[in-house]
Specification:
heterodimer, A: 398 residues, alpha+beta, Rossmann fold, OB fold (Dihydrolipoamide Acetyltransferase, E2P), six-stranded mixed sheet, five-stranded antiparallel sheet, B: 304 residues, mainly alpha, MetI-like fold, two-stranded antiparallel ribbon, 2 strands
Chain lengths: 398, 304
């Protein structure tokens, strides 16, 4: 056993990883590279395979196919305790029979590091909990336990730190605070962080790179601003913030833009912001990019205008007001307007037009799903299939 | 399951309960207290008094009068000191063997079979099943199996490990074997109750923190199942120390394997009540001291 730390964070590489459970496939042919020292977030709804990915990296599950490399070394066949990886578990999993200090020391002692106690105290000071070192985990609050779990993992200076929705159980205020602390710790110690979450705001505020996962695949990966401003699929457009999506045929294809016919009106999208340039395409625009007009705006180059429509709902959310606009032949359009002046600029039932600048539009690679936004693997039918198959396996073994 | 009660130390509610004198509580406790006085305190007092009695004036067998004859204790210790030592040794060995056999069994039922509830219940029933047959009958069955013409001795003689005049019944081996066999369910069930509740996420976390399988067992699984181990060892050691069946010459023992329980039994039926009572009290003290020390050391004071 080597009694020393890794010099720095390490690259994580997943090559063609597939994980099948009886009855369903959790991950399908996943290829992913996370560069050393980055804060990477896997974002997706429950059942999308993000926690399974994390458990595969930690070694708690074995992949059905594919390889996992940490710092260039193939660790696919190694056991969890042999991997230079530590996890902050969703349940924290602090050992209830040990003190906080013993919990933090645990990993160091298993690796035979000499000044374990001093390092553990240092890690506890980092999370500002050194004063409770002698207590048992059950005597701490949820937020404190979360910080101990973080200290217990960080103290080992793993090449790769895995975070499994560690902030899920915290209230909003504490969560914000912990997000900032986590980010600070990450830049301070320079580890590679792999953070799994279903909270898009958390992923966007903390991570350098966000990968949006759906049904065992990565839909899109990139910097948070990039993902938000230029979603490539309807899933990303709707999971990461809100989007207004319109589907129609491409009627004109120019050098710098394409024109899509939406409810009888041509809508322009920059060519480089559209994934497809012919046939039926789905285009979209973010609600805060839209402007409401109570009279028909003059048609100006570089501006898309839709309308007239009727405001069907107005809700005040503090910083902004959210309007729902119904234009005949289109799905309801959401508009966020900053509350620059007092009160809403238009009443419910008013006749309005919406406009946005051409460069704010985007074109998707797939078509907007008329179905609910994301169908989980846990619908009744697939659960029934899983149940039956696991029962069959059990009967075979019996 | 009643055994679960031993495995769970639970939160200490007494500390937070209001310290208000309540007659209702006393009334509710009264039947229990009266029952304890009638069936525990009174017999114990009677036992102590009996242990100091001396023979009556008529010198008839079984006639004793109240006195303070402490020599009963000297006699008990002097005559049966060696037997006390043997009782302790046999019970300890039986407890250790039962633990070695029961822990993996309990782990198998409580953890490995967790995903197969049907199998879990089935194996659990197998552990309890021996209770459906009389304890005496099962011990006699072992006597037959270990008998001089029985399969075990014949086999050992056939492979040359035993000479033609060597036998098993009546040896320390058969007595410790009988004790171990008879108390295995009492060891298995509390440990099972502890392990069945073991949260495997702690074990996963241990693996994540560089602990190999051996370290995970010693540092996580065993400490978390310790309440079950303590209950199980107590439920084995205490009754084994007072056992008078296995070591009896009618079952698996002989005059060379006499334990304290046999002495008390014999003395009682020979009407030597005061010495019999003195041996009982000495045995009780001899068990209580190591048990209290053990429980304090294992940090399970809640059991006391």
């Amino acid at each position: 056993m080597g009694g020393s730390f890794d010099e720095s964070g390490a690259d994580l590489e997943l090559v063609g990883v597939t994980k099948r459970f009886p009855g369903f496939t959790a991950i399908e042919n996943l290829n992913l590279t996370i560069p050393a020292g980055s804060f990477f977030a896997l974002l997706g709804p429950s059942g999308c395979g993000k926690t399974t990915t994390l458990r595969l990296v930690a070694g708690l599950e074995e992949p059905t196919a594919g390889r996992i490399l940490i710092g260039g070394k193939d660790v696919t066949a190694t056991k969890p305790h042999q991997r230079p990886v530590n996890t902050v578990f969703q349940s924290y999993a602090l050992f209830p029979h040990m003190t906080v200090l013993a919990n933090v020391e645990f990993g160091l002692k298993r690796r035979g590091i000499s000044n374990a106690q001093a390092l553990a105290h240092e890690a506890l000071r980092l999370v500002e909990l050194d004063h409770v070192a002698g207590r048992k985990p059950s005597q701490l609050s949820g937020g404190q336990q979360q910080r101990v779990a973080l200290a217990r993992a960080v103290v080992n200076r793993p090449a790769l730190l895995l975070l499994d929705e560690p902030l899920g159980a915290l209230d909003l205020k504490l969560r914000r605070q912990m997000q900032l602390e986590l980010k600070a710790i990450q830049s301070e110690v320079g580890l590679t962080f792999l953070h799994v979450t279903h909270d898009q705001e958390e992923a966007m505020t903390m991570a350098d790179t966000v990968a949006v996962m759906n049904k065992g695949r990565i839909e899109q990966m990139g910097a948070p601003e990039e993902l938000y401003e230029l979603p490539r699929t309807s899933f990303v457009a709707n999971f990461l913030g809100q989007s207004n999506l319109f589907t129609g045929p491409v009627v004109e294809s120019a050098a710098d833009s394409i024109t899509v016919e939406v409810a009888g009106v041509g809508v322009k999208v920059p060519r480089e912001r559209a994934q497809r340039h012919a046939g039926e395409v789905t285009i979209g625009v973010r609600p805060e990019k839209l402007t409401l007009h109570t009279s028909k705006p003059d048609s100006v180059a570089g501006l898309n205008v839709l309308g007239p429509g009727t405001i069907t709902d107005v809700s005040f959310t503090g910083v902004s007001t959210q309007y729902l606009v119904q234009i005949p032949g289109l799905p309801a359009i959401t508009v966020f307007a900053q509350n620059m002046a007092f009160g809403p600029v238009a009443e419910q039932g008013a006749e309005v037009w919406v406009s946005w600048r051409v460069e704010h539009g985007f074109g998707l690679a797939d078509e907007a799903d008329p179905e609910p936004r994301f169908a989980d693997d846990d619908d009744t039918r697939s659960i029934a299939v899983q149940r039956r198959q696991s029962l069959e396996v059990e009967l075979d073994e019996a | 399951m009643a055994f679960g009660a031993f495995a769970n130390s639970g939160p200490d509610l007494s500390a937070s309960a209001p310290r208000r004198r309540s007659y209702v509580a006393l009334i509710l406790l009264a039947p229990g207290i009266l029952y304890l006085i009638a069936t525990f305190v009174a017999p114990l007092g009677s036992l102590v008094l009996t242990s100091f009695k001396e023979p009556g004036g008529n010198f008839e067998v079984g006639e004793y009068v109240y006195a303070f004859r402490w020599e009963n204790y000297a006699e008990a210790l002097g005559r049966f000191g060696e037997i006390f030592g043997r009782t302790f040794l046999f019970s300890l060995l039986a407890t250790i063997f039962a633990l070695i056999i029961s822990y993996p069994l309990a782990y198998f039922i409580g953890v490995t079979l967790r995903r197969f509830p049907l199998w879990q219940s089935l194996v659990l029933i197998l552990v309890i099943a021996p209770f459906f047959i009389s304890f005496l009958l099962r011990t006699l069955a072992w006597k037959a199996i270990f008998s001089d013409e029985g399969p075990v001795v014949s086999f050992l003689q056939a492979i040359g490990l035993f000479g033609p005049e060597q036998y098993l019944n009546g040896t320390a081996f058969t007595v410790v074997f009988g004790l171990t066999y008879n108390y295995i369910p009492f060891m298995t069930l509390p440990i099972y109750a502890s392990l069945e509740r073991l949260d495997l996420r702690y074990v996963e976390a241990g693996g994540d923190l560089y602990a190999g399988p051996v370290q995970r067992f010693w540092r996580i699984i065993l400490p978390l199942s310790l309440p079950g181990v303590v209950s199980g060892t107590l439920l084995t050691f205490i009754p084994a120390s007072g056992d008078y069946v296995n070591a009896s010459k009618d079952f698996l023992g002989s005059t060379n394997t006499v334990m304290a329980g046999n002495v008390i039994n014999d003395l009682f039926f020979q009407s030597f009540y005061p010495v019999s009572a003195a041996v009982s009290i000495l045995l009780m003290i001899a068990i209580l001291i190591p048990v209290i020390a053990y429980v304090m050391k294992s940090g399970s004071e809640d059991l006391l």
